[in-house]
Write a structure and sequence with these properties.
- The chain contains eight helices and no strands.
- It has 186 residues and is an all-alpha fold.
Length: 186
């Protein structure tokens, strides 16, 4: 293995160790109570390995959650068939449900909300039907829809999940369509 590949592997390992250690520590206490010294000790890496890769503990969580959340939005943006999208969502909630609930309990849910909001912007930026909306209206529209959609999924995930994933998916679609229709009525 070349020196570059070896260095890259060490970096990837350090990131994985730090991420795993942080998620383990979050099982016991809120993000604000975790210190870098405690994290690197648990991860078995040096402080330098931490600071070479991250500025804050939040950066670790962003790196962990960002690709997972983006993949769900990729399905929506790419207009993946509903059955495939629901399968991906089911897998996401099965794999990430505990981590998302933990985010709420350990006071770092704002990171997930930011990532969700960024992806909602990405969705609406890629959607031609919003092209003729002025920038101010679009900014508020995206914020409104992001908060509402996130709130629905959050409520479903954290409180019993009595409804099927299909029911919630359909509800979100109906609410979005109704809101878009109301917006175009003058």
């Amino acid at each position: 293995m070349s020196a570059t590949k070896h260095a890259q592997q060490i970096r990837e390992d350090s990131i994985n160790y730090l991420t795993t250690a942080l998620l383990q520590l979050l099982e016991k206490k809120p993000l604000a109570e975790i210190k870098v010294t405690e994290l690197v000790s648990r991860a078995g890496v040096s402080r330098m390995a931490y600071y070479r890769n991250f500025d804050t503990l939040e950066d670790i969580l962003r790196l962990y959650f960002a690709p997972r959340i983006s993949r769900l939005f990729d399905d929506v943006i790419g207009r993946v068939p509903v059955d495939a999208k629901l399968t991906d969502m089911q897998q996401f909630f099965a794999e990430m449900g505990h981590a998302l609930a933990l985010a709420q309990r350990r006071n770092y849910e704002y990171i997930i909300q930011q990532l969700f909001d960024e992806n909602m912007h990405r969705f609406y930026d890629d959607s031609a039907q919003w092209a003729d909306m002025d920038a101010t209206a679009k900014r508020y529209w995206v914020k409104f829809m992001s908060a509402g959609v996130y709130g629905i999924w959050r409520e479903w995930l954290l409180h019993r999940q009595d409804e099927t994933l299909t029911d919630i998916h359909d509800l979100v679609g109906k609410l979005q369509a109704a809101t878009a229709t109301a917006l175009t009525i003058k």
